[in-house]
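Assess this one:
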Amino acid sequence: MNTQQRSEQFVATTYARFPVTFSRGKGSLLWDDAGKEYIDLGSGIAVNTLGHADEAWAVAVHAQLLQVAHTSNLYYTAPQAELAQALCSRTGMRRVFFSNSGAEANECMIKTARKWGAGRSTIVTLEGSFHGRTIATLTATGQPAMHGDFAPLPAGFKYAKPNDIADLQAKLDNSCCAVMMELVQGESGVLQLNKDYVQAVAELCKANNLLLLIDEVQTGNGRCGSLYAWEQFGITPDIVSTAKGLAAGLPLGATLFAASTCDVLGHGSHGSTFGGNPACCAGALHVLHRLDDGLLADVQAKGEYIRAKLQALPGVKSISGMGLMIGIETVKPAKDIVAECLAQGVLVLTAKDKVRLLPALNIPMELLEKALDVLANCL
């Protein structure tokens, strides 16, 4: 019985997998169990910030594993405290709660907003949004097609049309405590919100005593060319959630609180057994140190290169996104393009009816050029 057969028999059937088994990787390259080489333009869905098997990152994680791999949050550990300080220093936030995933980071954000609301519990999210697969974050997700099998869903969420400030304003009433949104809706087709709209939402929140919640699970940690995407929109959120690329392959989520919300959660009001695990935090600290101005500028430059390379092709209708979070609306079905690229040794993703690119932030230019030549042919 090989790996694929074993998985099909014993692993829950929640994923439609490609018939490929990866056995090793290095940088932006992966090799399957037959030795075939692939250029990775998906990075584990925006997770492998520094690519595969980054030696300096592995050394940092390994050093922590040899000291304390885990202890409960009843005690202090240096990596967790240092990472929280570093995140606050880089963002201007005041406190951080650590969890294991983006859904958990969003759960924490939702709970905090409701506790802050003191009786006001409704959170307005946007149509087309994706915030996770737990019951609360699934309900926050503005995609009704994802809700049907899991009713009854919890109350307390409304959905507004993206980039329509009048529609959002119409959804607000005395039950509302917050507005929650992704600045680039990754799972809905890499759809970027308009800057004017985002700033108007921020002003509306201030005027109505509402919290502004920004989901940076996918857009954060350098993906859009700044440490967090909100920094490019001229706003300051009350709470920010993030995960995916934070620890470059280890499970770590974070919820960052501004001064307005940093003291809402008290002892016993939230928790996580594995959240802030020392080894994961050591990995994230290394990532954060690597995400300097030079690397972030390089992310923006590579994103512009990809757009310039692909936007004039006859198989491309439009290109969306920010930095190295790119959606390509194609003439051919996106799923067909993904399959053709896979056959030719390039890994790309889909987002609804678009091809989606999420390469490692440090992908070498020569590999990026080679992969884009393959993608261009498939397009």
Observations:
- The mean pLDDT is 97.
- The first strand starts at residue 22 and ends at 26.
- The two ends are 36 Å apart (CA to CA).
